[in-house]
Amino acid sequence: MNNIKGYVNFVLHAHLPYIHHPESEDYLEEEWLFEAISECYIPLLLNFKKLVEEGVDFRITMTMTPPLLNMLDNKLLQERYIKYVEKHIELCEKEVVRTKFDDRLNRLAHYYLDRYSNDLHVFKDIYKCNLITGFKEFLDRGVLEIITCGATHGFFPILYVNEKTVRAQIAVGVQTYERFFGRKPRGIWLPECGYVPEADKYLKEFGIEYAMVESHAALYADPTPIYGTFAPIVSPDGLVVFARDMESSRQVWSSIIGYPGDFNYREFYRDLGYDADYEYIKPYIAANGARVNTGIKYYRITGKDCPKDYYDVQWAKDSAEKQAGHFMDCRTAQINSLASYMDVPPIVNCPYDAELYGHWWYEGPYWLYILFKKIYYDECNFKLITPSEYIDMYPEMQVCSPCRSTWGAKGYNEVWLNPTNDYAHRHLHKAGDRMCELAWKFPNEGDNLRRQALNQCARELLLAQSSDWLFIITNGTMVDYAHKAIKDHIGRFTKLYRQIMKDEIDPEYLLDIFTKDDIFPDIDYMVYY
Question: Which CATH number fits domain 417-528: 1.20.1430.10, 1.10.10.10, 1.10.760.10, 3.30.70.360?
């Protein structure tokens, strides 16, 4: 271990917007969670488990955002996930029969049948329908650091015009973390890596020591950091920030040179839901008859100029193993070069969306498993580390003012504030001001009905503030649902606000919207006081 010259910090941001529709099973958007469970969260847990059982000492950091935690803990969504998997198992059983005269296709059909059957076993029998307990096990072992996020992924660089709304996002995010993990979080993933200095004092107020930021938050800091992105810096208000490394990110994210584009990997956009005969696949697609992804994908990427070939699991594993070796060699060379110029060991920060690993890049969890084994067993000049461990080992840092920044396209706010979605902000700001007004007008309300209504107003405001709706509108995917989410939450907030102000609260209406938007059971509206 004497040859250790630096560290690598892997951070996976596990987040989905809160989608919960007890009134109907026909909302396709609920399947975002189910897909992530089967393709990302369960594979990650299983690979972490293998590493522990094999005696591999590894470190990884993950965000588990408050909306995701609340959905994973939701009994109705747990039941619906089981139905989702059972439906996939039924389809896979039919596929095993349908493909019996094609050996390669039949092997894949059996593969998917085994995968979904195992998902059901892991979810029901091992984790008793709650995957949070699985992640907490690795948190308690010390190999996984879990950090928090804003309550609903609200976008700080725009919300901060009313700083109390930013403070509430942080406060409820920390409270939710404590409820599920029984301890305070040391770090936060700023929603969309959106850094604004106005948030620092509230992060410190609630015990947050560090945050993940985009590269240029550090590179354009004042003064310019001596070590660039390869050592954390600390803001004047005492927030430590770890900036993303551009080289390691490019190797995974880039559509040109990134690992997920390997021709042996599974093709995301070729799915049985679109390929199969319509009458055959109809029971397994959207309730309205629209073709959608089923998760059963028989083809590999293959290449632009070639007809699509069948996916081969072993070929994909071979590619993942080679690329894990390449990534490790690149970090070894990078750290070797950096260490000679630095007085502290360099840290290479590798933050990614967790859903990249397994959902978008099907082989991603296996790649991580192989990479972590290689780092542990092979000749290597770096170790895996968490941000908290690095801070504890090297507490002296340069004081700099990070630059306002995000990790969105072009690096600033355009994704969340542009002509396609700017209509929403005036409503979000007005609702934020009204929520603060309610807290001042009814401090520590004693009337039970009014207090429930005030708490529900806080929930509706937080749900409306989710940055996901603005992102979806900009990207042009599921736009109608995003518009509807903003309209519903702002509409419910406004109606309830007026009922409270007129002292005409409708208990049936309040119960109805609480049933739909039952996130944050312990919320206290006085967080806006």
Answer: 1.20.1430.10
